[in-house]
Amino acid sequence: MDEREHSEQLRVGLIGAGQWAKVIHAPGIAAHPGTRLTSVWARRPEAAAEIAQQHGAEVAADPEALFDSVDAVAFAVPPNIQADLARTAAQRGKHLILEKPIALSVEAAEQLAETVSDNKVASLMLLTRRFAPEVRDWLAEVNQTEGWQGGSVRWLSGSLLDAKFADSRWRHTETGDLFDVGPHAIDLLDAALGPVTGVHAVHRTEEAVWQLILEHEGGATSTATLSMRTPIRPSINDLSVFGKAGHREFRGASTEPPACYTALLDDFVAMIGEGRHQHPLDVRRGVHLQRILESARDLAAAGR
């Protein structure tokens, strides 16, 4: 790569050094032709140093130092930490790659979205499956057909039984499954059947299996079954819709997460290069999903 190409790359800082940062964020940013991993910060300096050394980046002394050296920031930290740091980054004019959920409360999500808007920065959420080409094609076909009356999604795995997530405290809370895989599932149903306007019913089993009934704009209803603590191998990720045009089913994306992340970076670099600040999967999408998640959580708590 010559000096001109290097200078035109988007300088990206990475906050966080956990499993997802190691296997998705860092290698994806370092390998993409439009981005350069410039700086890494994590609460554990040794973990940040390990990632930085692998990809030719610097280790930042603190988040402020990272913000000083980059054009954009990718987050791989718990949602409560992400919300505060992302607001500060946006106030400094930094573009954002956000993990889901974007926060742990609607209030924090709305504050982040307002800051992003006020500072005219680009933002994208890492809703992995939405960047898979086969998912995009399936949704495009579904959206061209009218008369859908309902649908369902199943997102089931034993991820939280794996030792690699043992230190992820927010995932191991009572609502961890809902707030981790819920954004993926609800986003897909919303994209297929139209905006979710309400949560009709919620049930959570003692084994942390969540079942939601959702209402959609236009009259469709859908169901979501979610769990990260069910010992299923391979995991189940399927989506279906039904209505006047019959039945359409999508079973698992074949595109692996690293390739989905590359597609996200393609969109992210294009947005910034063209001066665009809006995208179907930007921070506003995060606020919409946050409202649904909180409604589901509150309805489950009220039904105990």
UniProtKB/TrEMBL annotation:
Keyword Oxidoreductase tagged: yes
InterPro entries tied to this protein: Gfo/Idh/MocA-like_OxRdtase_N, Gfo/Idh/MocA_oxidrdct_glycsds, GFO_IDH_MocA-like_dom, NAD(P)-bd_dom_sf
Keywords assigned by UniProt, alphabetized: Oxidoreductase
Superkingdom, natural source: Bacteria
Residue ranges of every copy of the GFO/IDH/MocA-like oxidoreductase domain listed in the record: 151-246
Database matches in Pfam families: GFO_IDH_MocA (PF01408), GFO_IDH_MocA_C3 (PF22725)
GO molecular function per UniProt: nucleotide binding; oxidoreductase activity
UniProt name for this protein: Dehydrogenase
Taxonomic placement: Bacteria, Bacillati, Actinomycetota, Actinomycetes, Pseudonocardiales
